[in-house]
Amino acid sequence: MSKLDELIEDALKHENRTLSGYTKEPGYFTQAKGLFRGPLGWVIWLVYLMQILAFLGGVYAFWQMLIVPESVMAVRWGVGTILLFLTTLSGKSFMGSHMEANRILREMKRLELRLSLMETTKTDNKAE
User: Fold this and answer.
1) So where does this one cross the membrane (predicted)?
2) Taking a C-beta distance cutoff of 8 angstroms, is the pair 117, 15 a contact?
3) Full-model pTM
């Protein structure tokens, strides 16, 4: 590597350290709580409520499946159990996709910040 390449690499390392101080990746629970805010917060609350109700209904249907004496009724309760637990699972995947979309948006904002800092640095260097 040439001396110029080493200088560029050192400058980028310093810039990355500076940017990482401004834009730290939030933890999982912070990201999950962030879903409930913003313009789609009410949708997430609705999906979360639906998940809780479907899970409780699934537990009740599973219990009924275990205690019912007839086979046909046990199968009916079992199908209901499966459908309610699948509803819970689809709600989780919906919320997970929104969390991933928020992570991508956060990375795009970091990239925009990096580009704007690079532009500012270039204009400062030209002014000198």
Assistant:
1) 42-63, 75-95
2) yes
3) 0.69
